[in-house]
Amino acid sequence: MTAAPATDPTADPADSALVRAARRLPVERTPVWFMRQAGRSLPEYREVRQGVAMLDSCMRPDLVAEITMQPVRRHGVDAAIFFSDIVVPLKAVGVDLDIVPGVGPVVAEPVRRWADLDRIPELTPEHVPYITEAVRLLVAELGPTPLIGFAGAPFTLASYLVEGGPSKNHEHTKALMHGDPALWEALCGRLAQISGAFLRVQALAGASVVQLFDSWVGALQRSDYSRFVLPHSRTALAAVADLDVPRIHFGVGTGELLALMGSAGADVVGVDYRVELTDAVERLGPGFAVQGNLDPALLFAPWEPLAARVEEIVRAGRSAPGHIFNLGHGVLPSTDPDVLTRVVEHVHAISSQ
Ligand code: 1CP
Prior knowledge:
CATH architecture: Alpha-Beta Barrel
Number of helices: 14
CATH topology: TIM Barrel
Strand content: 5-15%
Number of domains: 1
Helix content: 40-55%
Structural class: alpha/beta
Largest sheet: 7 strands, parallel
CATH class: Alpha Beta
Bound molecules: coproporphyrinogen I
Order of helices and strands: HHHHEHEEHEHHHEHEHEHEHEH
């Protein structure tokens, strides 16, 4: 059986190229989407966000649906990624935080002591009715195009909570991990519940795929990752294991961690642009689909070398039992959106030959 063409409006997103690639089934052409495909690279995004704070926009289903659809309409990508942020579930359970323009998530009172855990209750679907509503709106509008739901993984969420905001060195996070392992375990246990429940809400509302972002986990060495992080990522991913949705797991700078990340339970491992895709496939071992991994900075290069790199990545992707073309991290805000559209067309053209 081959995937129904995406142009058939009645086709099931579960039969889409993206879901099939994630399941390591044959596809007619390589599916492609971009991390951070919604957002500041698009003038239509900047327009609808005018005067609306980031977190407010994430809580308005009409706006979430519009922003999620923008890159699908413009670029013809093979999936939508739900417009939200990894800190939305934390805000939803009552953590005092904001997303500050030009900075990122900022937490009013960093989490460093046992008493601070009381400020992070477990997440239930009742905390996030606007997420369920937005996913339902989107699934109806997307038709055959799959929606990717997502959550932040426990380590990356813990880093924002413990540091109080974006961090280069994660020094307070590592100090807590090693200085009070019991508190670290309790914090990450709570965050794994929140991540898993947030993924589950999206999958139950109709998302076809989920992605767990552990963006900053590349800051760790393997032994710390195995001991302090992997069990919690596994718990988060296990929360949707009984639902029929493929799971993607991604982090930045994870060349050293890839094999371990593969054991967290995902079907697809997202590969950072610093690692050759063929090396990633070797490190993961058989059985995994891969996602990636064009360097987002190469979107600023002339078309010829950019196209050549896209071709290399599509070729390298054939060494895995499934490949989803993506960037090796998110779209940079000043990217020319027309280049993204051209990359989508090129991936489709060269992979269907
Ligand atoms: O006002 C704005 O436009 C703020 C910029 C912005 C946007 C568009 C932020 C703040 N978040 C988002 C949306 C967002 N965040 C999406 C939307 C869907 C899409 O990809 O198109 C997603 C998937 C996220 C997830 C997210 N938020 C991650 C994981 C992905 C990654 O890039 O590694 C992380 C680490 C965050 C934290 C965050 N939120 C926003 C910023 C600027 C940051 C990073 C800050 C830092 O450097 O620590």
